Amino acid sequence: MTVISGATGKQYGQILQGAPFDVFLAADSRRPELLEQQGKIVKNSRFTYAIGQLALYTPKHPHPTQEFLTTSRFNYLAIANPRLAPYGLAAQQYLQSRDLWQPLQTKLVRGENINQAWQFVHSGNAEAGLLALSQLLQADISKDYYYLVPAERYAPIVQQAVVLKTSPAATALSDFLQSDSGRKVIALWGYALPDRKDTDNKGTTHVR
Q1: Has residue 200 got a pLDDT over 90?
Q2: Alpha helix (H) ranges present in the chain?
Q3: DSSP label at residue 170
Q4: What confidence score (pLDDT) does residue 199 get?
């Protein structure tokens, strides 16, 4: 199976244009829901596989707190594009909740997706970034250099998957992500887990 990474919004557009994807692992729930409504997925294949977590990463400044963003210790803050990437929207919501969205406009560097935002910080082009916790764990970043943003500061980053084409590989991946083994791996890499029963009758995702 070939993995193609990119911004959720951009890949959604590619799927609508006929991109030959078998499975779509989105970083939100809106695009999978839209694909389901448009009849673009295998029936009953949509499910929540993870809840993303946002973190403030400051590679040159240990033990950051939320007050770091009100200091002059950085020139640029990397985020993903809020219009394309769910983690970017979460970053915007967090900054807005602290009345920092407008004051920091001249310092924001927007990546097309969360991976590009990571590259801005990793390369030194930005001194700080609002990134996915999973990225920091994958890069083995010490806890001393990031601050886990309180989940109540942004809308839950409900990440859903859909099967676009039936195939043995697509079915195997979907089954694995929902299995005990798959959920353990997902949690290990910095995601919160949805309840076994994805949603209640109102379509609300529960996190544990």
Answers
A1: no
A2: 8-16, 30-37, 86-97, 114-122, 133-138, 168-178, 180-188
A3: H
A4: 38
**For 67, what's the count of Cα atoms within 13 Å in the CB-facing half-sphere?**
1
Q: Decide: 130 and 79 in contact? Cβ < 8 Å.
A: yes
Q: Quick one: CA dihedral 179, 181, 182, 183, positive or negative?
A: positive
CATH class of the domain whose range is 53-153: alpha beta
Count CA atoms closer than 13 A to 106's CA, side-chain side.
Answer: 3
Angle between helices 30-37 and 8-16 (to 10 degrees): 10
What average pLDDT does this structure show over 188-200?
Answer: 77
Tell me whether domains 8-51+156-207 and 53-153 share a fold: yes
Backbone angles phi, psi at 123, to 5 degrees: -80, -10
Q: What whole-number distance in Å separates Cα of residue 183 and Cα of residue 185?
A: 5
Nearest to 136 by CA among 194, 189, 67, 204: 189
The domain limits of the chain are: 8-51+156-207, 53-153
Please list the residues that pair with 111 across neighbouring strands. 80
3-state secondary structure of 131: strand
Report the chain's mean pLDDT, rounded to a whole number. Answer: 92
196 vs 7: which has the higher pLDDT? 7
CATH architecture of the domain with residue range 8-51+156-207: 3-Layer(aba) Sandwich (3.40)
Task: Return the pLDDT at 162.
Answer: 98
